[in-house]
Write a structure and sequence with these properties.
This protein has 259 residues and is mainly alpha-helical. It has two domains: 10-91, Homeodomain-like (Arc Repressor Mutant, subunit A), CATH 1.10.10; 104-258, Tetracycline Repressor, domain 2 (Orthogonal Bundle). Helix content is 62%, strand content 0%. It has helices at residues 10-18, 37-51, 58-65, 69-72, 79-91, 104-121, 137-151, 157-188, 192-206, 210-213, 215-220, 238-258. The protein is flat, with a radius of gyration of 23 Å.
Amino acid sequence: MVVFAGQGDARRSMALLWRSGEPDPEVRPGPKPGLSVDVIVEAAIEVADAEGMAALSMRKVGDRLGRTGMALYTYVPSKGELIDLMYDRVLAELPTRYDLGAGWRPAVVSWARHTLEFYLRHPWVLQVSQVRPVLGPNEFAMLEGVVAVLRDTGLTPRRVRGVMALLFDFVRGAAKTVSESRLAPSATGVSDEEWWQARSSLLKEVEPEFAARFPMASWVESQDDEPDDGPDDAHPGGETFSIGLNVLLDGIEAAVKAG
């Protein structure tokens, strides 16, 4: 499931994101809590975090607030605007500044780890396409922090944009893999260990000459003498994430040295 940002009315969406125009109305009568754009957005994030993007609807958010789905439309015109607001709201969790005292490389590592953990807290965010940005204040604040780190490399703006795209694609891809790995056991009723044990034994049975037929696949899965990353293995993404990130950073360093 892919969701494209900016599906609602452009003027209304931007006004809600940037809180321009009239202040949000609130409904206070009765025992139920008052409604506002912020209250609705927070409830929608709770629904998406707990049940996923596919479960998100105005009715479901209304139920969570003890209201009808129709009552929300006074504040948020449609689900399209709601997703834009949710996306921009959760981006506020990401740091907007990183310590450059030790150079840009440790700062990029910190950014990558924070961003990976962010996606895993809110896996539904991975379903919001990066093709069309939300253009909200928290999205720009997040980008300010990333650009400030990469500007320290000395690369030109054009090359920084390319590096940013590469880093975001890498972290989002890693987060998607970890998120799906966490979801698979509950979705299928089979643990990863059980799944691999069942199929790896059958693979040897159906193709006894597997190693000879697929020597490269066998080699890449073989054990070697390189040490593991130690404590980093416990981090989301583990050793694979660290290796991939370091290779990318080596490439950025090479680009910086080449000028």
